[in-house]
Amino acid sequence: MAKKPVNFTLNGQDRAAFADDGQNLLEFLRRAVGDLSPKYGCGQGACGACTVLIDGETQLSCLVLAETVDGKAVRTASGLAAGALDPLQTAFMEHFSAQCGYCTPGMLISARALLDHNPRPTRDEVIEAISGNLCRCTGYEPIISAILAVAEGRVRA
Amino acid sequence: MTTTVQTVATLTEAARAMAQGATFLGGGTIIMRDINAGVAAAQIVRTTDPALNDIRISSDKVTIGAGVTMSQIIAHPELAFLHKVARLIGGPQVRNMGTVGGNLFAPHPYGDFAVALLALGAQAVMAGQNGSRPLDDLLRDRSRSPGLVAAIECPRPRAGTFGFFKFSRIKPKGVSVLSVAALLPREGGRIRGARVAWGAMAAGPVRGASAERALEGQSLNADTIARAAQLAAEGLAPPTDAIATDWYRREVAGVYLKRLLEQMERG
Fold first, then answer.
1. E strands along B132-205, which residues?
2. Are residues A140 and A101 in the same domain?
3. Strands across the sheet with B23-24, in order?
4. pLDDT (tens digit, 9 = 90+) per residue, B145-198?
5. Domain boundaries, position B43
6. Substitution target from B3, B33, B93, B94 for chain A, most A beta carbons within 10 A
7. Using CB atoms within 10 A as the burial measure, which of A92, A150, A154, B254 is most buried?
8. Domain count of chain A?
């Protein structure tokens, strides 16, 4: 099996690693690059736990061929905190938005993408933005509340 | 199974690899699932050909590259007639990945975008072959690897003549109990060239011949709508799955066709 070189930026830092033939981006990030923040849920594109940003767009890393991010910018939940926590991370803690925490990195990425494009979303827009992310234990209400709190400037920086 | 992925520069090369048995990888939402599950073909081919992402607009039709994503459709102001359909495909991440070409081959209960294109009378432009094929044709053949779709050519519907409805149990993101699309061009107040297409009412997107017969030549009024709704499921054999039984799909098909047609009647 041929290894393919992949040069990309991960959370703003240049990275280079070899991807296996047919390897998905999720496995590549976790095994070859060592970023454990995207989670493996279903491997089918149903749960959103593996959500990352590729050139600013939310994508499901388990369904992305790793070699295709060559030359692209990937952002994951592990890169959200730059010095201080991202306001979304603070809000998730304040609103008890993580129980088991498994969906949290994907939720944070979907929420970050929403607020980057639309800083003052309505409640319906928040629900739409996280509709590709399943949560099976916390419940969606605390997650929606946290995102709205950031949008409405109710979170201390 | 071990999978080898080959990347080629042009659609023609990709079509050639497919003729030799390779499976085409587009946005990944279908084929990467198979790779992850270990059930993909041994040979996968993808292409970096920029033609795959072209969108061309003319006065009477639109040509959409097979690699154009649902999000790119939603972002294109000239494709407004397809915005509602594209918004109902998957969740935000899937819309950023899933493509027009891939949707034509999405297994049941997916493929709602193909349902809309089928009703619109779209054609598939085939890579490495001459000319294009009506989707009616391509969709009937889709399990037999009909080749590589390079683009879709779709006539632009006149305002108020096209409608689409998707019924799912979970909102805003859920798979189809069924979806239905209708194109109802009018001449002198009468419907001429009615096209109705269903999703999740057969193994893949299909035309609703009985509903079309009830609509053809009529004016779109309460009587016509009632007749079309009554005949909606006639001749269709929907699958039973975790979402709904075949019986339930047949029972509700008329209800949803009626809602769609009433919406189109109101304009």
1. 132-134, 149-155, 162-168, 176-183, 186-187, 190-191, 195-199
2. yes
3. B4-8, B43-47, B23-24
4. 889 999 999 999 999 999 999 999 988 889 999 999 999 999 999 999 999 999
5. 4-47
6. B93
7. A92
8. 2
Last-in-domain residue among B140, B155, B170: B155
Give the CATH number of the domain where residue A97 resides: 1.10.150.120
Q: Is A8 part of any domain?
A: yes
A156 falls within a domain? no
Tokens standing for residue A35: 């970023």
pLDDT given for residue A156 in this prediction:
74
Residue A1 has pLDDT above 70, yes or no: no
Q: Which pair of structure tokens corresponds to residue B141?
A: 């053949």
**Quick count: other Cβ atoms within 10 Å of Cβ B166?**
23
ipTM value for the complex: 0.97
Tens-digit pLDDT profile for residues A6-54: 999 999 999 999 999 999 999 999 999 999 999 999 999 999 999 999 9
Q: Do residues A93 and A37 share a domain?
A: no
Residues B56 and B146 in one domain: yes
Burial class (CB in 10 A: 0-12, 13-18, 19+), B54: middle
d(CA B217, CA A87): 60
Last residue of one domain, picked from the residues A30, A56, A78:
A78
Residues of B contacting chain A (CB within 8 angstroms): 2-5, 7, 25, 28-29, 32-33, 35-37, 40, 44, 46, 71, 90-94, 96-97, 172-173
